[in-house]
Amino acid sequence: MSGSEERPHAELWAQVQAWLEEWWDPDLTVDAWWKAVAAAGWTAPHLSEEQGGRGLSRRSQTVVRSAFAKFGALLPPGGLGLLMAAPTILTQGTPEQVDRLVPPILEGQVNWCQLFSEPGAGSDLAGLTTRATRDGDKWIINGQKVWSSMAMTSDFGMLLARTDFDVPKHRGISWFAFPLDQPGVTIRPLREMTGQAVFNEVFLDDAVVDDADLIGGEGNGWAVTQTTLHFERTGIGAGGSHAAFPDPGPKGGMLGLRAGDAARIEPPSSKLTLGFEDVVELAQRTGRASDPSIRQALATLYAFTETGRWNALRGRAEAARGGGQSVASTGKLSQTRIVKLAAKLGMDILGPHGLLADADGVDGGVYAEAMVFSPASSIYGGADEIQRNIIGERSLGLPREPAPDRDRPFGEVLRSYGG
Ligand SMILES: Cc1cc2nc3c(=O)[nH]c(=O)nc-3n(C[C@H](O)[C@H](O)[C@H](O)COP(=O)(O)OP(=O)(O)OC[C@H]3O[C@@H](n4cnc5c(N)ncnc54)[C@H](O)[C@@H]3O)c2cc1C
Questions:
Q1: Which one of 128, 380, 393 would you pick to mutate in the ligand 1 pocket, going by the greatest count of ligand atoms within 8 A of its CB?
Q2: Is the pLDDT of residue 396 over 50?
Q3: Ligand 1 mean position to 147 CA, how many Å?
Q4: For residues 241 and 270, what is the distance between their CA atoms, to the nearest angstrom?
Q5: How far is CA 307 from the centre of its chain?
Q6: Ligand 1: distance of its center to the CA of 380 in Å?
Q7: Secondary structure of 162-197 in the HEC alphabet?
Q8: Looking at 96, 232, 306, 412, which residue is catalytic?
Q9: Which of 395, 281, 272 is nearest to 327 (CA)?
Q10: In this predicted structure, what is the pLDDT of residue 233?
């Protein structure tokens, strides 16, 4: 983090430094360290004190993480639980659900994945066909999810399932805090063009979830989903760097490590997306910073990055007033543009040499990998076209897209996939 990030938050920065001087102990286990960090409210300082935070601004989370990194201490836990599940449960859950499900996320004890997309339901998420059937105080789940990032290392899924096929599609969906470690769940990795297998297919065959883990009420899952997607898009729009690292939960493999050793592990996500500072540093190091075409592209990237940051600030202000949906979509689009331009610029700076991967490549093939990953930014968190639809309809007041099946009972809608 640059000095310019540090200065406006000097007081908070100093507070974190003082706390770390007293508490950072590299010989603690990661498990013990994260519990101490959560108890002090540093995992999610923007939450209220009673929710486990410190009642600070949303921006404070990034400042705190930067201060931890600069000090050399292991960062607070990351993961999709922190980015999406915790704020969703805090917004839509009962006090009992909040008390039971949120603290383990803040303490890094569990990892979460997002079980939304299906083979026949991505952009048209409300067309999902995974079925939840009530059985006493439990629900039986049957169906298939796909593109489920990090499901292999997760303990819980944010699961969307249809609890009523007799009402229009947006009304029959429910949102569950779904435990993944059970016989009815099969998780299969999918290899991506980056060579990694972060994605998974998740098959649900008579899987079970307690009614107590239904968040936001039966049939209200679409409204709950909007909350989750809002936090996903604002997280991505703000750079989303703390989304996944350090990996929480027993399957993340960090809990038993010595905290001092874990602090030296490089975040894998840094290999996937580049930002302005990365490419400026690369241009300077390789002597390409004086090339006029590179300078021009760097200036464009800087402008995108700054407007993205202003948009994120506007989003936070609007969210505090209870709005901000289309600002979240603008932010997501803006971040996509940044990720793609930075990846292309890395290639322009390096030339053909930049295409070499892994050990043969520059800096371990970071730039080649970022280039190959960058198209994904137009898809995850809702495709670019969908973000533009949201901005058009909700912000600009344009007519809604025709949706002839919107008001029909979902069971009567013609569909090519799912039961
Ligand atoms: C890196 C990555 C991580 C992901 N992680 C997860 C995850 O953890 N959990 C999860 O549930 N999902 C995840 N996804 C899935 C992602 O949410 C979906 O891929 C996305 O919503 C698009 O759905 P789809 O792939 O079914 O494409 P489709 O919906 O079939 O879209 C295909 C194309 O048609 C366009 N299109 C569709 N409808 C419209 C329309 N109405 N108007 C204009 N254009 C339209 C789309 O923009 C797109 O270009 C991830 C995806 C990626 C790339």
A1: 380
A2: yes
A3: 9
A4: 8
A5: 21
A6: 6
A7: ECCCCCECCCCEEEEEEECCCCCEEEEEECCCCCCC
A8: 232
A9: 395
A10: 78
What is the tens place of the pLDDT at every residue in 363-385? 888 899 899 999 999 998 889 99
Residue 44 CA to ligand 1 center (angstroms) comes to 29
CA gap 81, 108 in Å, rounded: 9
pLDDT band at residue 1 using 50, 70 and 90 as cut-offs: very low
**C-alpha separations of 311 from 238, 307, 315, 324 in Å:** 9, 6, 6, 10
What is the pLDDT at residue 40?
A: 97
- Could you identify the residue written with the tokens 């190959």? 372
And the tokens for 13? 């920065």
Q: How far is residue 329 CA from its own chain's centroid? A: 14
Peptide bond into 8 cis (omega under 30): no
Q: Is the CB of 122 under 6 A from ligand 1?
A: yes
Residue 232 a catalytic site member: yes
Distance CA 102, CA 87 (A): 9
Cα–ligand 1 centroid distance for 109 (angstroms): 30
Please give the sequence-ordered ranges of beta strands (E in DSSP) within 112-167, or none if there are none: 112-115, 131-135, 138-145, 156-162
Contact 26, 258 (CB under 8 A): yes
Pocket probe mutation, ligand 1, options 379, 390, 398, max atoms within 8 Å of Cβ:
379
Residue nearest (by alpha carbon) to ligand 1 atom 2:
380
Sign of the four-CA dihedral 167, 168, 170, 173: positive
- What pLDDT was estimated at residue 7? 56
Residue with tokens 């464009």: 300
DSSP code for 289 = T
Atom 37 of ligand 1, nearest CA residue: 123
Q: Is 291 helix (H, G, I), strand (E, B) or coil?
A: coil
Residues 116-160 pLDDT 10s: 999 999 999 999 999 999 999 999 999 999 999 999 999 999 999
Q: Is 375 in the pocket of ligand 1 (CB under 6 A)?
A: no
Ligand 1 centroid–CA 117 distance in Å is 8
Whether 147 is in the pocket of ligand 1, judged by its Cβ within 6 Å, is: yes
Rg of the chain taking only CA atoms, in angstroms: 22
